[in-house]
Design goal:
This protein is α/β, with parallel strands linked by helices. It contains 13 helices and 16 strands. The structure holds pyridoxal-5'-phosphate. Pyridoxal-5'-phosphate binds next to α6.
């Protein structure tokens, strides 16, 4: 597969050689590296991207799943064009940020107050600080496989075997009070809360485990966590950086009908520009009010928080989503369902041992070596990479091994083409 891929993408290959001389590993995000080298994108529009060699791909990576309306939708580009003439960076509040904040507050059930920042990693870092500051407890319970960005404390238990350090340079004492439990396993959470003897500040999870396998939580599990949190005076916190405004307009908390005390969002809220936000109960978020006397939790933003370009793009996106939510979300769920079942059918006809998980517009095909197993137990990352490269040579872009996201631009025939391309996958390894 590498041979075909390399023959199609010589310009990306050359750019990667140059990139390796400027960037560590040739990339600016670890997830963007895959062998033999990643494609370099020149242009993007709607559901398509074009690489430096001029190939067009139907994109399912969608800018780390941030682009729910596709690349450069007219509503967003028009708002950005207007904003460019009015200023790119104020370093102050603006009507735009107030309006976008009001949209978030109206949509997201737990968002009584919020604070903008620039990335999801920043948002989850502030979330942890707020949870600890409010509760005056230390322990944060997170999920094995849970990914919350590159912040120091939460970079733990992300990759199997989950108990090994994720990185040099992070001190064990910096993560001493972060405890990892199994996702969708209420008893494990109960055990961890009990073992922490009243010191759990928050139980933090992605309602759809994202980088950890695109696995939706069971509704009863989330309800059980809500009860556990209430019984033990613990905060329940959702990382909705992926699911916010994607699985429903009000995010996974709306979809599941379980409201956390705190949540972190990012991606879709910025309309394709850099964003993060932390939100939650007023009682907790108001601790970050710099004018308050007494208890205070110091959180950002930063230099570029509520920057007017992001605010304009986010506002245009949320306005569109709110107006069209009755069409957009059922449609995304329908396309997602078609893709998941179609891919599994096509692969099983080829006797490839695979299972596609996800929720709504989110999906990931898991490739297993050996007999079928539940969950992620015996995954074959080589097969997963081969599948990604195979799809790319057929004009479909997925970041190998990572979840994909369907946008409002994708059509029925795009999904049919995806299923068709999946059915042409002939693995060389692992079978
Ligand atoms: C669930 C989740 N939380 C947090 C983050 C971190 O967000 P960012 O990459 O904007 O720092 C990500 C990024 O993919 C994510 O998927």
């Amino acid at each position: 597969m590498e041979g075909v891929y390399e023959a199609r993408t010589p310009r990306s290959g050359k750019l990667f050689s140059r990139a390796r001389r400027v960037f560590a590993g040739g990339v600016n995000h670890n997830a963007r590296f895959y062998e033999p080298y990643p494609i370099f994108v020149k242009r993007a529009r709607g559901q398509h991207i074009w690489d430096e060699d001029g190939h067009r791909y139907t994109d399912y990576w969608m800018g780390h799943m941030a682009l729910i309306l596709g690349h450069s939708p007219e509503v967003v580009t028009a708002a950005l064009r207007d904003q460019l003439t009015d200023g790119t960076h104020f370093g102050t509040g603006s009507r735009l940020s107030v309006e976008l904040g009001e949209h978030v507050k109206a949509a997201v059930p737990c968002a009584e107050l919020l604070r903008f920042c620039n990335t999801g990693a920043e948002a989850t870092m502030y979330l942890v600080r707020l949870a600890r500051g409010y509760s005056r407890r230390r322990v944060v319970i997170k999920m094995a496989g849970g990914w919350h960005g590159f912040n120091t404390e939460l970079n733990k238990g992300v990759h199997e075997p989950f108990d090994a350090p994720e990185s040099e340079g992070i001190l064990p004492e910096e993560q001493e009070h972060v405890v990892t439990v199994r996702f969708n396993d209420l008893e494990d959470a109960r055990r961890a809360v009990k073992a922490s003897k009243g010191d759990v500040a928050a139980i933090l999870l992605e309602p759809v485990l994202g980088a950890g396998g695109c696995i939706p939580a069971e509704r009863e599990y989330l309800k059980g966590l809500r009860e556990l949190a209430d019984e033990t005076g613990t905060l329940l916190a959702f990382d909705e950086v992926i699911t916010g405004f994607r699985v429903a307009y009000g995010g996974a908390q709306e979809h599941y009908g379980v409201v956390p005390d705190l949540a972190a969002l990012g991606k879709v809220v910025g309309g394709g520009l850099p964003v993060g936000l932390v939100c939650g109960r007023k009682e907790i978020l108001s601790l970050a009010d710099p004018s308050r006397k007494g208890r205070f939790v110091s959180i950002g933003g930063g230099t570029f928080s509520e920057n007017p370009l992001t605010m304009a793009a986010g506002l245009a996106t949320l306005r569109y989503l709110r107006r069209h939510s009755r069409d957009v979300y059922p449609r995304l769920a329908q396309l997602g369902g078609q893709l998941r079942s179609g891919v599994d059918r096509a692969l099983s006809e080829q006797r490839v041992n695979a299972k596609t998980t996800g929720l709504g517009s989110l999906f990931l095909t898991h490739f297993m070596s050996g007999p079928p197993v539940e969950g992620r137990g015996k995954e074959d990352s080589n097969l997963s990479r081969e599948f990604g490269l195979s799809m790319m040579t057929r004009g479909i872009f997925l970041l190998p091994g990572h979840a994909g996201g369907i946008s409002a631009c994708h059509t029925d025939s795009d999904i049919e083409a995806f299923v068709d391309a999946a059915g042409q996958f002939r693995p060389k390894t692992g079978k």
